[in-house]
Amino acid sequence: MRIWKTGAAVAAGAVALFAAAFAVGYANPATSADGAFDGANRDRPLAPLGSERQCERYSGLPANWRDDPKAGMVHLSGGAFVLGSTQGYADERPAGGGKTRVGGFWIDQTDVTVAQFAAFVQSTGYVTEAEQQGGAAVFHVPTRDELNARDLAWWAWVKGASWRHPLGPGSNVDGLGNLPVTLVTQRDALAYVRWLGRDLPTEAEWEYAGKAGRDDASLDAAPRDARGKPAANYWQGPFPVLDTAEDGHAGLAPVGCYAANGFRLYDMIGNAWEWTKDVYTGPHQPHVNGDTAAVAPPTRRHDTPMVIKGGSFLCSRDYCVRYRASSREQQEADLGASHIGFRTILRDAS
């Protein structure tokens, strides 16, 4: 999520530009608008998620894990939709005047969890890039002194941080198998999906799934349910000093704590950004976000910027405003961060 930040003047301008557009809430529909959630899903077990109680009890491993090649997935028949938005940032503008078409595919109901990634590592002995690099970009709530001392004070390069040790040495993921795995790079994600015979989604496939057959204006609104409660895990309060946790979580939440979208997919908005397989292109306007690469060791070589989608627990209405299906951001392919995970897809045979 954190990519560009040019100071208080840019932040103030972005807030003025977008706050009104994204202040209105929305209620997630219970069913898809266009029937893309199709008959291939009949009689398949769906994840028992969608509430705090259910996500807390979830092991992080879907039903029939490793026995069913499509375990934890739902099928979408594909179709045409508008890729992007006219209401957001400049790099979200739809290309041309028509629609983008995607073919059918299976997609994970949730982000890949710590439990799933741990099974992959145990099976293959895979070592992530953060482990090889000796650290990763980790978010923390900065003190006043830190904010006064440097820009991007909420990001730090933490030696020893990895998916196993998300806050660095002394931290671990024991008993947290239901969390999205984070601090993984795009290469790590690709290694996992290939182990399962799957792939990462393209940006278009991801956004098609995230919009779930909708094209209404509320797609560009702050995600709130019919009662006005936040319907996703994003930042409420003044960023980066106070997350009031109105949504029930300050920091990363277990997968599936909030209602699914119309395609039965959880956490397409908020919680953790998600890798895609697409290289980032488009206007490189200031994003009012902190570039995680800025805190990495100066000897580190910069890698290709890739598209990430969906926003994270760090997106706020006064700073990021990327808790929307059409939002997009860039992240260097080999840089792990504490707010980025992924989910997998399996395309239909053409």
Explain what this protein looks like in three dimensions:
With 350 residues, the protein is an alpha+beta fold. It has helices at 8-18, 52-57, 114-124, 129-133, 144-149, 186-195, 203-211; strands spanning 73-76, 79-81, 100-102, 105-108, 135-139, 155-159, 273-279, 305-309, 328-332, 340-341, 345-347. The strands form 4 sheets. Strands 9-8-7-10 form a 4-stranded mixed sheet. The protein has a 3-stranded antiparallel sheet with strand order 1-4-11, with no helix packed on it. The chain has a two-stranded antiparallel ribbon with strand order 2-3.
Task: List the uncertain runs.
Answer: 1-33
Helicity, in percent?
Answer: 10-25%
Give the helix/strand class: alpha+beta
CATH top level label: Alpha Beta
Arithmetic mean pLDDT:
87
What is the overall number of helices?
Answer: 7
Give the tally of structural domains.
1
Classify the beta-strand content into a percent band: 5-15%
The CATH architecture: Alpha-Beta Complex
Span between N and C termini? 33 Å
- Sheet having the most strands: 4 strands, mixed
Based on DSSP secondary structure assignment, what is the total number of beta strands? 11
CATH fold-level name: paralog of FGE (formylglycine-generating enzyme)
Name of the CATH homologous superfamily: paralog of FGE (formylglycine-generating enzyme)
User: What shape does the CA trace take?
Assistant: globular
